[in-house]
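Field: COMPLEX_INPUT
Field: COMPONENT_COUNT = two
Field: RESIDUE_TOTAL = 539
Field: MODE = joint
Values follow.
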Amino acid sequence: MSIELPESDVPPPKGADEPSSGPTRRTFIATSTAVGGVVVAGGVIGGSLLADPAAAETVRSGQVSLTVNGTRRTVTVDNRTSLLDLLREEFGLTGSKKGCNAGACGACTVLVDGRRVNSCLTLAVRLEGTEVTTIEGLADGDQLHPLQQAFIDEDAFQCGYCTPGQILSGIGCIQEGHTGSPEEIREWMSGNICRCGCYVKIVRAVEQTAGRK
Amino acid sequence: MYPFTFTKAASTHEALNAGRRGGRYIAGGTTLVDLMRETVERPETLVDISGLPLREVTVTERGGLRIGALVRMADAAAHPKVRALYPVISEALELSASAQLRNMATIGGNIMQRTRCTYFRDVTADCNKREPGSGCAAREGHNRTHAILGTSEACVATHPSDVAVAFAALEATVHLMGPDGERRIACADFLLRPGSTPNREQAIRQGELITAVEIPALPRPLKSGYLKVRDRQSYEFALTSAAVALHVRGGVIREAKVAAGGVGTVPWKLPAVERHLIGERPSEALWTAAAEKAAEGARPLEHNRFKVELLKRTVERQLRIVGGTK
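Field: COMPLEX_OUTPUT
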């Protein structure tokens, strides 16, 4: 399966938020993805192009094996596919959010080989052999990750859209050792925007989790 | 985003071959992927160079520092040698972007990053840098964040890098490897002023690869630091910035390295400020008088006149922070 959501090719989801008669946002995006996938896969992978060395020069998709939340996955992706789209549209891991899709908001933050990165700016085809951790991979059964629990205890969100990115970024911040003061946490968490303005409580959640370690 | 082919280079040789055939190198990808999505960048082939052995930070024989092109911003900033020898580099890096982006972006990619001019990033706007000959929408447009130094009729976009300002101040050298071998070029000559060809931003030839940035040895003790002024406290590009390094011995400034960011079409070295400082004793009056020379030659636009005064004050404050007030 090959996926890509070229923004320029996808019409804006006008009916996305309309009542039940229209498509839901999720079904709309899934449909768009499937269509895009069929088009790309049909043109590149479906035919006999791979067998032709000259045509192989123009192959615009690639196979990649990566581990996501402990599970090894092998997938063929359109070269344009971001890690974020791969997670959400191919693997059904919709916890990581698409905010700006430009590295400016942090909603898509995940860990790649233990380091926090913006998955929207990460090309999936480059991730051969890497280990990816998303919000879905943090809990141990019913036992939440301490930072997840701290976000609940501190009431560190309102709408929740930025929360998965905040938590993954907070884990990175704690691992990197930048939790010496609320000011330091604020600076090192500045890559995650919260439109609801829950920063005070987010900082508190990170601070308390760091202190417990 | 337009389709592209993708290869991962297993060796420098392989990368250079792919580059010579027109392949575009990708390291951290934080600028390139973003601009590809905006269709500002439309490479036909991406060559992933992240596996190449260019990740070392080493002290040179003369006591300078060589930072491999693929050292990530976060790692360069945290490196003990960088922190100890050139705090100005660590500070510039840590005041850049976000922790996530610094975990991805590399030193080589940082100096190759393209302007944040909104008209450059908007493919429906006139922009000589993106589309030579189309005009410059910024000149009469929303130009509050644009350059006041080094501009031309064709382009007024700033260079967005912070660490490149520190490199400019310290007179760093860019190491390149290409089909014709290796060469070195001063930072100041590597990043090009726009002139009539703003689409040419670096003195880099087709297929050439940045392998390292080298900081020359400077007399010790050396105090240095970076100050960044911006519209929000973090995660924002500079309105103005100042990189300062001072060597003071016997109460006299023997060496001064000063450059400014956020104001120039390239990182802006300030030789007139440096000359004013060398041979003098640190004092409040000296910082003020030296900083007065920071905006020499400035040509502000309609909405960025404030940068002239802000630049002087930024330089003055950073001279005071680094040099003290005795």
